[in-house]
Write a structure and sequence with these properties.
mainly alpha; 2 domains; about 55% helix; rod-shaped
Length: about 120
């Protein structure tokens, strides 16, 4: 994935459009994609800023808030499998998603589980 355009290039693109070029013409002139130029001009018109939008971010883990339950399940049965944990969570109305989601949560908590039945 490419990074954001430099601030200098962003300013020159906006200046070219303000001087009468279309966003597509400015894109060709400065060798950037038409899509990038159009989105930049839209952003400048909406916010007045040429700063790039934030890239990425933090997503809270799906099982955040259920740490105590995960600890309880793994200590109640020492050789519990991920599929068994998933079934027990589902029985309590907790959608755990994939087994890797449960694995990640257990790993984050430093808990162990049996890999296969």
């Amino acid at each position: 994935m490419a990074g954001p355009l430099s601030q200098d290039l962003r300013r020159r693109l906006v200046q070219a459009v303000e001087q009468g070029s279309s966003a597509r013409e400015a894109a060709r002139r400065f060798a950037v994609s038409e899509s990038a130029a159009i989105k930049l001009i839209r952003r400048v018109r909406e916010t007045g800023s040429t700063e790039p939008a934030r890239i990425g971010g933090y997503r809270r883990p799906l099982l955040a808030g259920h740490e105590a339950l995960l600890r309880e399940l793994t200590t109640a049965k020492l050789n519990i499998t991920l599929a068994e944990i998933q079934a027990k969570l589902a029985a309590r109305g907790i959608e755990a998603g994939w087994l890797t989601t449960i694995w990640s949560a257990l790993r984050r908590l430093g808990l162990s589980h049996k890999k296969t039945a």
